[in-house]
Amino acid sequence: MILKVHIETCLSQLLFQEDTDHDKKITIEDRGPKAFDVVSLSGESYIVKGTYHLSNLLQELVIAKNQGFEIASIDSDVIEEKPVDRVSKMIKDYYWDGLTRMMDESGIQSLIHDTKNESLASEKLRIYVPFKDELAFNYYRSLEHKLPITAIKLPEAISPEYVKSINNKPGILALKLQTSNSETVGVPFVVPGGRFNEMYGWDSYFESVGLLIDDKVDLAKGMADNFQYEIEHYGKILNANRSYYLTRTQPPFYTSLIREVFEKTNDKAWLKSHLKTAIKEYETVWMVKGKRLSENGLNRYLAEGIGFPPECEMGHFDAILKPYADEVNLPIREYEKAYAEGQIVNKELDAYFVHDRTVRESGHDTSYRIEGHCADLNLVELNAMLYKYETDFAELITQEFDGIFENYTTQFWNEKAEMRKNLVNRYLWNEEKGLYFDFNVKTNSQSGFVSATTLTPLWAKLCSENQAQQLIEKAVPLLKEKGGIAGSTKRSRGDISEDRPQRQWDYPNGWAPHQMMIWKGLFNYGYINEAQELIYRWLFMITRNAVDYNGTIPEKYDVVEATHKVFAEYGNVGTDFEYITQEGFGWMNASYQYGLTLLHNSYKEKLNNLVSTEKLF
């Protein structure tokens, strides 16, 4: 049935009746009658029942309103749409568009009004441009008379000292521009969402998995092209394109991205260009001894920089600073300022912030697994990722370049991968426990902290068949919860108190990148049934929360309770919206689309019946 309604009238009546907590959403926490009579302009009537269907009506009215209509044609079939079909459709047709950005005139508008720039109220948005990118510098200079921006050229050599000097002048970093029909336009990219309104490192790879599934190949290709730009101009794939991230990279997924884009485009010239850049990143970012390459031949994260991570809010480090401030009888704010300006020298704090920045570089900010000693750890997942770089290089050179590329042979990369595998088995594998553990190069010992990352070697095909079997028999039962795989075990995380607060990458929370890597790893080794169960648990949780909470798809979940109501630092991005989420959350969207490509149809049908069952499993 198609019902034509006046949008504002229907919307106000619906909210008045059903939105009893006045948050401009319809959720299971509202106490309305849960039945709304939609009366069309022609007098036809249709009763919409239940939280899910009422929230669908709300969303459809707002979509029509946002498209500029006063009268909406409401299709009852859309209101009654099955949950899995609707969530997937919304991701494909709406959320990706809501997350897409470009660093050109049209795209800069959203950055000017970004919440990170609110403190600059009377100032202009600073756009920092690489030293050698004259096209970008001249382009942004030409926009200065039209927009409240200032183009600033970076020095040719970017040092930690320079980055610290501009921490009180934060800005956005330029990404790739291209000329099309004599017009300069930005190469598009996808942001995670909410306050994360810039291009992030490992988020971009996982988002691209979903983009490729949804046939948005140009967007995924744009992500890779912007990665290439960052490596060529900033020396690394950045944590994100903000000025204070110039000394910090993120988990390496570049080869995975270019392989998966190439599978769609078959553009060999594009692949050749990116493969050359990926090898450069491998050698200059990851394989420099004394930096991210440890003496034992394995890798670590090591974010350079000086002092406080400037992205943190005031007060974030008060618990760390207080003992030092008390010792010299200074208020915390005065001590903080004096330390930041170099008037107070504190080697212990210097060391603390090396590890703190490195935690952020790892992507796992924050977790008790790595807090306080991250720069001393050969992390399991990092070495699995770099093993995949090496095997990706070998396979691409074999398949596409007849065994030799830029003087590198397939054999060279296979030997690199074999060397790493031997080192991983020596330092990270624990035969007695059947798990991989991070290795501390200072204490010369394994950590013993059980994390979801112990399963990432499955994703990289780094395990033997025996190791895979042990991991699945021992690690999965330790980490499996109602909503999927938890970031860690409760025992490893330890007790939580006022002095030892919850960390967001630990138990009870679960994250999309862990799930996606683990699913692929299980498929790599033929553990299909185990994968199906974990995928179903994760998708059930997302679908159930979307059904009950007006389409909410947030950054992370409490997988123990299978809820988006997460009580940890930084809150939960993607839950703060009115009427309808325009974005979801980047890698969560991707995990949903990816999971659906792997899940058996019988399980999809179970998910689609959630509205009527109202129960778990």
Tell me about this structure.
47% of the residues lie in helices and 11% in strands. It has a three-stranded parallel beta sheet with strand order 7-6-8, covered by helices on one side. Strands 12-17-18 form a three-stranded antiparallel beta sheet. It has a two-stranded antiparallel sheet with strand order 1-4. Helix 20 packs antiparallel against helix 21 (528-548) and helix 21 packs across helix 22 (586-598). The chain is built from 24 helices and 22 strands. The longest helix has 21 residues, at 380-400. It is mainly alpha-helical and 617 residues long. It is globular. Residues 613-617 have low confidence and may be disordered. The protein has a domain at 2-81. Strand 9 and strand 10 (183-186) form a beta hairpin.
In a few lines, what is going on in this structure?
47% of the residues lie in helices and 11% in strands. With 617 residues, it is mainly α. The radius of gyration is 25 Å and the shape is globular.
Question: Which geometry do the CA atoms define?
Answer: globular
- Calculate the terminal CA-CA distance, rounded to whole Å: 32 Å
- Please give the count of helices: 24
Cα radius of gyration in angstroms = 25 Å
Largest sheet: 3 strands, parallel
Proportion in β-strands: 5-15%
pLDDT under 50 segments (min length 5)? 613-617
Helix content: 40-55%
What is the averaged pLDDT score? Answer: 95
Q: How many strands appear in the DSSP assignment?
A: 22
Walk across the major sheet and give the strand order. Answer: 7-6-8
Structural class: mainly alpha
